[in-house]
Amino acid sequence: MNLLRFDSEGAWVAGVASLWRDRLRTNPRLRMCLPSGNTPIRIYAAMAESVKRGLVSFRNAEIFALDDYGGLAPDDEGKCANILRRFLIDHVDLPNDQFHFIATDEPDQARVCRDYDRRIGDGFDLTLLGIGLNGHLGLNEPGSAPDSATRRVEMHASSIEASTDYLKHSNRPTWGVTVGLKQLLASKEIWLLASGAKKADIICRAVKGDVTTEVPATLLQKHPNCFLSVDAEAGALL
Questions:
Q1: Domain assignment of residue 35, given as a range
Q2: Of the N and C termini of the chain, which has fewer Cβ atoms inside 10 Å?
Q3: Is the residue at 238 inside a domain?
Q4: The whole model's pTM is what?
Q5: Four-residue CA torsion sign, 96, 62, 153, 197
Q6: pLDDT of residue 185
Q7: Which residues belong to the active site?
Q8: For residue 235, is it within any domain?
Q9: pLDDT per residue over 109-121, tens digit each?
Q10: How many domains does the chain have?
Q11: Is residue 179 part of a domain?
Q12: What Å distances lie between residue 75 and 84, 169, 220, CA to CA?
């Protein structure tokens, strides 16, 4: 795992955005898997500003949502697809049919998962990941198999609690659908992103701990092209 440590959150945002622009310029048809959540929001804003200024384009790229919650209305602001739209998709020049998301409101979730895997096809060029306080990647909770495919999962208590950051009601999701570790680990390049002091402990475990499915992020230690990008607080224990 390659470490990119930045002195401040602002430098972290600018650095990651600069690298992302480089990847898109090198490969305009970049196929990306992106998370929602609070971690990448400022990076998404920087990329939206880059498109506005004509520095980069998503016109020929593809974006796949990493995961999404079940049990919420399709227009719920807390759904991961809607968070991605609000903070990135609606502000860049990506064509609508090149944004792929998981339809957790459909009755046949097994079919939805199979169809999503088919759309992923040959895989991702670049995957951006946040990290949960329990080490999860997307909704691949502790104990997830490294060869797991896109699937419905029951959320751990900490993930249910974290979902309240994005909801304006008390209907907390208890399940979701996530791209599996098989597809994530097969990505040509992976960026693990973390900022803030509360992520310092789990980042240390992800980098220095034993590789175990009980902390899914430790599996990234074996990836040949994984970059951990942290600000000073998140990387304080490294």
A1: 2-230
A2: C
A3: no
A4: 0.96
A5: negative
A6: 98
A7: 67, 134, 136, 141
A8: no
A9: 999 999 999 999 9
A10: 1
A11: yes
A12: 13, 13, 33
